What does this fold into?
Amino acid sequence: MKIDIIGDIHGCYKEFEKLTEKLGYSWKTGIPVHPEGRLLSFLGDLTDRGPDSLKVIETAAKLVNEKKAFYSPGNHCNKLYRYFKGNKVQITHGLETTVKEYEESTPKLRKQIKQQFMNLYEKSPLYQIHDSGKLIVAHAGIRQQDIGKEGKKITEFVLYGDITGKTLENGRPERRDWAKHYKGEPWIIYGHTPVKEPRIVNRTANIDTGAVFGGELTAFRYPEMETVGVGSSMPYDGSRFGV
It folds into this structure.
């Protein structure tokens, strides 16, 4: 299996287009298709903060429906899903940009986007297992002993990381560095916490390089084990980068 895992897009559609083109995908049919049959994988957080969340949803949904990509949700995806279900959620931390874009679109497009996203979310696994278990794609990561399992605590870890329950001075939740202690054989590709450059530690790779904060949008190529990135068109905000 040859797969290109895309980091947190957060509505940065232009960067997604550029990155897939750099990876050799053609957009002739309106979605990125690789001439050699490579597949894309989305590790969550398709939307929020960036300018084109609805176009990202449309493209990802089409790719997954046509079996040209895989998808697992991130915490922002989870929140958007709950918003579409009519649950009471705080329209903050980036969701406000997606909601504004959604509300300003036509009734026909709103209906289409809502249906596409809810179907995508409901049919997708919490995390992806590829190549007979050699490759795991999980939004914020996963513990070695939890691979192949599900449950409330596992869901929380996969969506939010190894949170302590404390809040840092910048208002972000404190997270333990689970990757530093990972000793498993499968490669785990994740994002969630923006880093200035891909962070590869103990067969794990954090590829959220903060596209929406002016960093890069990064892909991890498997089985080549290499990263490819494109620069962001968004204003740079160095304060948002973590580990």
